[in-house]
Amino acid sequence: MSGSGSSADFWSRLRRTTPARIGLGRAGTGQPTAAVLAAGAAHAAARDAVHLPLDVDAVVAGLAALGLGAPAVVASAAPDRATYLTRPDLGRLPGSELPRIPTTSTDGVPELAVVVADGLSAEAVHAHAVGLLQALLPLLDAVTTVAPPVVATQARVALGDHLGEALGARLVLVLIGERPGLSSADSLGAYLTWDPKPGIQDSARNCVSNIRPPHGLDYDTAARTIASLVAGARQLGATGVRLKDGAGELPTAE
């Protein structure tokens, strides 16, 4: 009995440190009923997150309150969710000619374009996109002009390359719902790309992933990392494998 109790205490301590399913025990040759039901519920939550449509009006309202200008809304070439899930290539392409997106910089060319995309979890966008931007914007230096945000539906990361090029932006930041798993259905990813244009490889991007407080990366930590990457990209003239994550270290004023 004491051995069984010690084992239970051991797994209980470990489970408090990770969302992974560990030390579930067994019932005969299978798992306990509670573990099976919990896995089923997590799987259902992940499926729901993939199919949940983006609440465009709510996201636009939240972004408009940031003071960056009126958000634009664009759609990818995937006409519906079923097509989006089976044709990833269409999610990387604009559905039609991109609308003219106004900028707020004096020379008409923004330093940074921000794209908020549904990706594979609109729930992540609903929960975290505006909060992350609220933490990020004060950390950007004075020379980083930010274009009015763009909301993209049925979108993959590479759609941001088309939008960044249309704006003439030096950098594009795509905030997108990441693929749900059995431990997280609302994880937000942030992808930063220098000199965006169609055809850029994923190795030319930097990614900050698993943004989902309190269970993942918190907004302040993610924002500091993104801001440091923006500053580093400007100095290097590149993102991706050439740009190393400074772990949130922002340049200090001279």
List key phrases describing it.
14% strand; Rossmann fold; 8 helices
Explain this structure.
37% of the residues lie in helices and 14% in strands. It is an alpha/beta fold. It has a single domain, classed as Rossmann fold (3-Layer(aba) Sandwich), CATH 3.40.50. The protein has a 6-stranded mixed β-sheet with strand order 1-3-2-4-5-6, sandwiched between helices. Strand 2, helix 6 (122-136) and strand 3 (150-153) form a beta-alpha-beta unit. The chain is globular.
Number of contiguous helices = 8
Order of helices and strands: HHHEHHEHEHEEEH
Q: What percent of residues are in strands? A: 5-15%
Give the C-level CATH assignment: Alpha Beta
What coarse outline follows from CA principal-axis ratios?
globular
List unreliable stretches of 5+ residues.
none
Task: Describe this structure in a few short sentences.
The protein is α/β, with parallel strands linked by helices. It has helices spanning 2-15, 33-51, 56-64, 81-86, 88-91, 122-136, 159-167, 219-236; strands spanning 72-75, 112-117, 150-153, 171-177, 188-194, 205-211.
Write the layout of secondary structure elements.
Elements: H1 2-15, H2 33-51, H3 56-64, E1 72-75, H4 81-86, H5 88-91, E2 112-117, H6 122-136, E3 150-153, H7 159-167, E4 171-177, E5 188-194, E6 205-211, H8 219-236
Parallel strand pairs: 1-3, 2-3, 2-4
Antiparallel strand pairs: 4-5, 5-6
Helix pairs in contact: 3-6, 6-8
